[in-house]
Amino acid sequence: MNVITTEELLQKIDAGETVSIIDVRESEEVATGIIPGAKHIALGQVETSIDQIDKSVPHYIVCKAGARSAMACEILEENGFTVTNVAGGMLDWDGEVQF
């Protein structure tokens, strides 16, 4: 499984790279702030939402600390997606968030 730190992801965003971020936290967690532009798909809905995820681009998967995003990465990798787990999750995120 590919892994990236929150700092490395923020550097990509700050450099103007186009990144696809999927936040797998629950709705009440996302209400406390989400990375701008991230798509919210709760972990329990990842398998049933696969047809809504673009397989042609790599995705960065984030949760609160990194465990649920690792599980989501496993599910998506098994289904042919290119994904990277964001280690540390939103607990380590120092970038902008939207509410």
UniProtKB/TrEMBL annotation:
InterPro entries: GlpE_sulfurtransferase (IPR050229), Rhodanese-like_dom (IPR001763), Rhodanese-like_dom_sf (IPR036873). Residues 15-99 form the Rhodanese domain. Coiled coil: none annotated. Gene3D superfamilies: Rhodanese-like domain. Pfam families: Rhodanese. This is Rhodanese-like domain-containing protein.
